[in-house]
Specification:
It contains 13 helices and 17 strands. Strands 3, 4, 5, 8, 9, 16 and 17 form a seven-stranded mixed β-sheet that branches. Helix 4 crosses helix 12 and helix 8 runs parallel beside helix 10. The two termini are 16 Å apart. The relative contact order is 0.16. The model has no long low-confidence stretch (mean pLDDT 94).
Length: 384
């Protein structure tokens, strides 16, 4: 089969790899119909995530048609068109029982934090990802969901990560009616978090980024205020000035390890890799939120130490909430929102590329070319 092949930092190519097979009675084999390149894939692409091994296939956002199922699979059948959450969850462990599907203890037993994730290095279980023609899906009775009748696969693939992560970012913020919400990062997750903040009753939503085309897109799609941090000066000072010196009620870090804006953080976190990425956005979020406010973190950081102003967290009485999105928990509600026209996920997709052009897709997305917001890869069989 054709599959993306990681060859080292900023080097990916399309290659031929063996078609996956059933390895466990609860497995399914899925023929991919859509697969996204995610902003967090760029952390892998840039060499920022430990134990990202040569030969790995990335891709944790995909839909597809069930081609084969293990003997214990009862909830899927061959021919079903499914969306597959990026969390690999067993459904049985103590964390899955709490609906913390992103923290599954069985799918990634060597880790103390994250559960298994498709195509996201051996720190997330070493599973092959969906930027391929076929994928082996473990625990197929648990997370995969059959597409509702009439759902566009472009909408469905965005429900595997982008929509639930943006929604949970807003949910973790504990937004109250009339709150001011400030979001750092106008990538797909930040834009979706801004859109979803209104659903929780926000009175004002502000998004901060550095690229004008993303700022313009966010303002239009999420109907929010959007600013370039290079134009407003210090974002923390701006946050105080625009909130009567109090700070935002809720701040969301939707950037993570690749944040720009601080020479020191960029040097230590992105160039020298002395910490698990540049924590600039997290600094801004902690320092921009009001005393007693909430900081919600969905931006991806590596598993090693990160330099953050923890003293400010303590002295301001800030609550920090963070996690991988529990996609399975959120899907019923989000599917309803899509069907009712409250959220239009596919509107974030700006580039649809053949799987064979995966290398170009990474370059376009990584270098922010051609006003790219979200790229989707389409395998040959899905183009027939």
């Amino acid at each position: 089969m054709l599959a993306m092949n990681y060859r080292g930092p900023q080097r990916v190519r399309i290659d031929h790899k063996p078609t996956p097979e059933i390895l466990h009675p609860e497995d399914a084999i899925v023929r991919v119909t859509r697969s996204c390149i995610c902003g967090s894939d760029l952390h892998l692409y840039n060499g920022a995530v430990p134990d990202t091994r040569i030969g790995t296939t990335f891709g944790h956002e995909f839909t597809g048609i069930v081609e084969d199922v293990g003997s214990d699979v009862t909830k899927l059948k061959v021919g079903d068109h499914v969306l597959v959450p990026f969390n690999i969850a067993c459904g049985r462990c103590a964390f899955c029982q709490q609906e913390l599907y992103g923290n599954c203890h069985e799918s990634n037993p060597e880790a103390t934090a994250a559960g298994g994730i498709f195509g996201y290095s051996h720190t997330a279980g070493g599973y092959e990802g969906g930027q391929a023609e076929y994928v082996r899906v473990p625990y197929a009775n648990v997370s995969p969901m059959v597409l509702p009748p009439g759902m566009d696969p472009d909408d469905a693939v965005m429900l595997t990560d982008v929509v639930p992560t943006g929604y949970q970012a807003a949910e973790m913020g504990g937004i109250q009616k009339g709150d001011t919400v400030m979001i750092f990062g106008a990538g797909p997750i930040g834009i979706m978090a801004a859109r979803c903040s209104w659903l929780f009753g926000a009175g004002r939503v502000i998004i901060i980024d550095q690229l004008d085309y993303r700022i313009e897109f966010a303002a239009r799609y999420a109907q929010c205020e959007a600013y370039n941090f290079r134009d407003i000066g210090d974002p923390v000072v701006f946050a105080k000035r625009t909130t009567d010196s109090l700070g935002a009620d809720v701040c969301i870090d939707a950037v993570g390890a690749d944040a720009a804006g601080s020479a020191m953080q960029t040097l230590t976190g992105r160039k020298l890799k002395l910490q698990s990425g540049s924590a600039t956005a997290l600094h801004w979020a902690i320092n921009s939120v009001k005393k007693g406010g909430i900081v919600s973190i969905v931006g991806v950081y590596g598993p090693t130490d990160t330099l953050v102003p923890i003293g400010n967290v303590v002295n301001k009485g800030i609550t920090i909430r963070a996690n991988q999105a529990s996609v399975k928990r959120l899907l019923p509600r989000l599917i309803e929102h899509v069907q009712n026209g409250i959220i239009e996920p596919k509107a974030l997709i700006t580039h649809r590329l053949p799987l064979e052009e995966v290398s170009a897709g990474y370059r376009i997305f990584s270098e922010k070319l051609d006003h790219c917001i979200k790229p989707v890869l389409i395998p040959p069989s899905a183009r027939m």
